[in-house]
Amino acid sequence: MKVAVIAPPYPLEEAPSPPLGVTYVAAACERAGCEVRIFDYIVRRYTREKLAAELDEFEPDVVGATSVTMNFKGAAAIMQDVKRHNHDIITMMGGPHVSYDWVNTLNDYPEIDLIVVGEGEETLRGLLPVIKDRAAWDSVRGIAFRKEGQAYFTGARDFIEDLDTLPIPARHLLPISRYLALGFPVSIITSRGCPNRCIFCLGRRMVGHKVRYRTPQLIVNEIEDIIAYGFTRINIADDLFTSNKARVAAFCEELKRRGIRITWSAFARVNTVDFGVLAVMRDAGCDTVVFGIESGNAEMLKRVKKGITLEQAVKAVRACKESGINTQASFMIGLPGESPQTIAETCAFADSLGIDCGIHLLAPFPGTTVREEREKYDIEILTDDWDLYDANVPIVRTSRVSETYVADFMQAHEAPHRELWDYIVERYEAGICTDDEYLRVAGHKRMNLVFKILSNDLIKRHGVFDNGNSSLWELAERISRQTGAQPKLVQNTLQQLSDAGYLKLRTDAATSRWYWTRNNRSDAEY
User: Fold this and answer.
1) CATH number of 185-401: 3.40.50.300, 3.10.150.10, 3.40.190.10, 3.20.20.70?
2) Which DSSP state fits 140?
């Protein structure tokens, strides 16, 4: 059986690192004995014509996609395109959005045949051997489909007790060179589960309240695999990485025992860290910890069941500074009961911490308590346009804070940051910036350029030459005209990509053609 797994488009501002969920799904399909390919449209341009060509070439029996709420509509549209191209292909989706909006998804998108609900690896193990026999779908727990014209769920499957039984994510199926060129860190998980009850989060429902851990040796095996691809930075995306200090210490010790020096970051809760565990993490390569603090008002924290205090946040940030770890924190505006006063308190508290803080807007995703029990909270949801659920657009209001107030606040809050950035860019372009400013602006410009090259397939579209005219500089001129980027920036970027082995030149009797390699250790094209 052949299975194609779709990685749907994802915006640059959301830091599209190599997709973790997609590669776990692909690995589960491989373990079930399937031939698997990933159709990656994160770092490649999506078109119906490209999809049709890839479907015709691979001829999959099943096409699946995973998504979050923000890119659900794009992923679902691709599923529609799959079905229109070949009605016989079985289409399925998974991920947090469809897991808690499966009724609407099946009703609104008849082109989607079934949905994998919740944790998917064991469900796929049971589903794939019988997926061509629709009469047998009833026997597979953890899926939703149409039965007698109605959306039907077979019942929840137990969470995977032993995470060590999971295969390593199938990153070998990704266009690795393109992700290396883009430069974002690789996400991994070392555990699943969250006992906390935050009303705006899906963690507890999606991965269960009981924390399940992977063995440190197996985690480090995966990190060695990541390093072999050429990546130099990872992000530990666990809901509760620091919940068990002894296990954190064992993981860090395993990294040191093997002599692995890689920089990494982790998400953590402020009530699970102290100087001791942070110092151990720092010694093993951790340079950044990110906290979700959410509000600077104590009553708001209680209302959303965050389970932390402002005093714990202050202590955690102080411990990070003392241990030499860079600290970041996220806050949320538009929570139930929000008022101008609580917003002001949140901003003041964030400023008082003296760290990098991001302020985002509440997005009540399907499956969250705040959405499903909205009548209990002081909140009105204004839209179900999932494209707007990126935490940057106001889509809720409270009795004391309108969406207009929130939009105006965010504009005013971001204005000084925009002005400072514009000032730094002016200094950069005038050649009078500091070394740090130069690195910031140059890195930002390079990242945006690379993403434009990738997401618009500029190498494939403009990288073919008559023999004798195939220099990298000629390619740079073409891409500079297409992107509006400075020729020198394009030249330097393409030279770096070529030197790293991400871009290579293939020549035949009539033409020369630049292409992306699958990875920097291979001449294989992707």
Assistant:
1) 3.20.20.70
2) S
Q: Tell me what pLDDT residue 353 has.
A: 98
Say if residue 100's pLDDT is above 90: yes
21, 38 in Cβ contact below 8 A? no
Superfamily of domain 2-153: Cobalamin-binding domain (3.40.50.280)
Contact 112, 93 (CB under 8 A): yes
- Backbone φ and ψ for 109, nearest 5 degrees, come out as -125, 80
What ranges do the domains of the chain cover?
A: 2-153, 185-401, 457-516
Bridge pairing between strands 286-294 and 326-333: parallel
Tell me which residue of 460, 443, 502 sits closest to 176, measured CA to CA. Answer: 502
DSSP classification of residue 378: S
pLDDT digits (tens, 9 = 90+) for 111-149: 999 999 999 999 999 999 999 999 999 999 999 999 999
- Stretch 305-324: mean pLDDT: 98
Q: Token pair 């130069």 is at which residue?
A: 438
Mean pLDDT in residue range 474-480: 95
Q: Any residues with CB less than 8 A from the CB of 242 and at least 6 apart, and which?
A: 248, 266, 268, 269, 272, 273, 277
- Region 503-508: what's the mean pLDDT? 91
CB contact at 8 A, 42 and 19 = yes
CB 334 within 8 A of CB 323: no
Nearest to 308 by CA among 292, 321, 288: 292
Interacting residues of 166 by C-beta distance below 8 A, sequence separation 6+: 24, 27, 28, 121, 160, 214
- 457-516: CATH architecture: Orthogonal Bundle (1.10)
Cα distances (angstroms) measured from residue 137 to each of 33, 39, 147, 358? 19, 26, 10, 44
**What local confidence, expressed as pLDDT, does residue 468 receive?**
67
Judging by DSSP bridges, how do beta strands 150-153 and 143-147 pair with one another? antiparallel
Q: What share of the chain is helix, strand, coil (3-state, %, to 5)?
A: 50, 20, 35
Range 295-322 average pLDDT: 97
pLDDT digits (tens, 9 = 90+) for 181-224: 999 999 999 999 999 999 999 988 999 999 999 999 999 999 99
* 8 A C-beta contact, residue 206 and residue 119: yes
